[in-house]
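Q: I'm writing up a methods section and want to include an example of the input and output format. Could you take the sequence below and give the corresponding predicted structure tokens, formatted cleanly so I can copy it straight into the document?
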Amino acid sequence: MLSYRLPREPSSPRVALWRRLKRLGVAQISDGLVVLPADARTREQLEWAADDVVERGGVASVWLAQPATRTQERELATAMAADRAAEYLELEAAARRALDAPPAEQHQVLMKLRRAIRAVHRRDFFPPTERDRAQAALRLLAERAERAERAEQAEQAEQAERVERAGPVAGVPAAGSAEAGRGAR
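A: Here is the clean output for your methods example:
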């Protein structure tokens, strides 16, 4: 658990801290109080965030705590899972929209979505079912992009083969021939 307070002005340190905490996947308990499941990585991340708060003129401390009841623990886990579920649904929707995009765009979107899903995985402490749906949508997009790439490569190979079979065109020297080299001068 991280308890923190930053000066209201300037607002940029508060905004930067909040963005950092959101990237970590925190659950906000109240204003200036956020939690993450306890492990070495999350504790270190919260300690770094606390150090940043202090460096920017604020007050911060990291606490090890646990909910007093199983109900509170379940509610907290459910809220964190719901936050990740929303992110996974966005990724799934983006992957499905990209299925109708041109092949080159599909590949670009796929690379962007793979980075995004890795970032969500890092803050996904209570994986929701939407995680599987997002991964399936990305796999489908990857298959479609790969199929389109193979089709494009096959088409280019066929075109090159047709040109090769057609042979030299009358009056046009073959590429690499001495006549072609003289004509270029």
